Amino acid sequence: MDRQLLPTTNGDGQPIIPMSEEQKYLFDLKGWIALPGLLDQEQLEPVRRHQMKFLYQRDSLPPEERDNHGGPSQILLDHPVVAGVLNEIISHQALASEDCYGFRFDHTYSSHRQTGHDNFSPHGGGGFFNFSGNSHIYQMQKGQIHAGLIRVVWELNEVEAGDGGTLLLSGSHKAAFPRPQSLSERESPLWETYACPAGSAVIFTEALCHSGTKWVNPDRDRLSLFTCYNTVNAKWGKACPPPEVIQSLPAKRQSLFRGVWHGMTEVPQINKYYDEANTGRFTPTG
Ligand SMILES: O=C(O)CCC(=O)C(=O)O
To answer: Is 160 within a domain?
Structure first.
């Protein structure tokens, strides 16, 4: 049954798209979901240009754009479809309002991979009873899940079958046994992956076993962002964007960068707001 999840619009005032019942079922079953074609060409080009400048000519960007999610790339942070998934799988609604997300930015990195780049390194999965400070948790009760630390992979270029998109071990977020040795081979038929057009997102719980692999397309590079979200009162990664980047965002998007605490009663004793005092301390990526 549908719950009314807040907020209902994103930082740009666009309606947030709730997850369908089928998407919820698939995410819970597999631990990941692919959301193809979320960005059109007009949205994609400025994001791609920004990513390449951020990676290779960072100083040429104005200070408020010197972040993975600065400038044009801020639209990825709370895209209406992604925000709909995050509202369902990681939001703590006690800290959400129409003006404030119930989840928080955790950390990110951008990655530009050319043919031969190899990131094969299976990790995660099997931590079914991890305690909450670990963040790599996955919990469920009838009709509701809490998927712990969440990774949103934005694929800014097309990924074809066999190119080398992220490998995912479906179901391993609930696995009771250690993963078998055969999964140390990237050729194992147990690994699943995806093909998608440019401008797609793949979302998985970090409780899932997953891995990069070799990018093998000689004609097209992989250009991706790997952005993590967490519950408001928990943080896994160290980085936090510079204040001038956060200040340049619309108010609701800024709420992704508030301090890591919960509190109770009314604002400012409960963490349902963002202001310049209630923010993470600037810590560069890396
Ligand atoms: O490189 C990839 O495709 C996956 C990256 C990964 O495993 C991670 O960010 O945890």
So the answer is: yes
Question: Looking at ligand 1, which residue's alpha carbon is closest to its atom 9?
Answer: 226
What is the total count of domains within the chain? Answer: 1
- The dihedral built from the CA positions of residue 244, 245, 248 and 251, taken in this order, carries a sign that is negative
pLDDT at position 132: 83
pLDDT in tens, 256-269: 999 999 999 999 99
Phi-psi label, residue 176: left if phi above 0, alpha if psi -120 to 50, beta otherwise: alpha
Residue 218 included in any domain: yes
Question: In angstroms, rounded to a whole number, what is the distance separating the alpha carbons of residues 113 and 80?
Answer: 27
**Nearest ligand 1 atom to alpha carbon 121:** 7
6 assigned to some structural domain:
no
Centre of ligand 1 to C-alpha 161, Å, is 17
From 209, 226, 285, mutation site for ligand 1 pocket: most ligand atoms within 8 A of C-beta: 226
Give the residue ranges of the chain where pLDDT is below 70: 1-2, 285-286
User: Ligand 1 centroid vs 211 CA: distance in angstroms?
Assistant: 5
Q: Whose CA is closest to 28, among 232, 231, 205? A: 205
Q: Decide whether any atom of ligand 1 lies within 6 Å of the 125 Cβ.
A: no
Residue-level pLDDT at 9: 98
**CA 105 to the chain's CA centroid:** 8
**Domain containing 162 — which CATH number?**
2.60.120.620
Q: Which domain holds residue 121?
A: 21-257
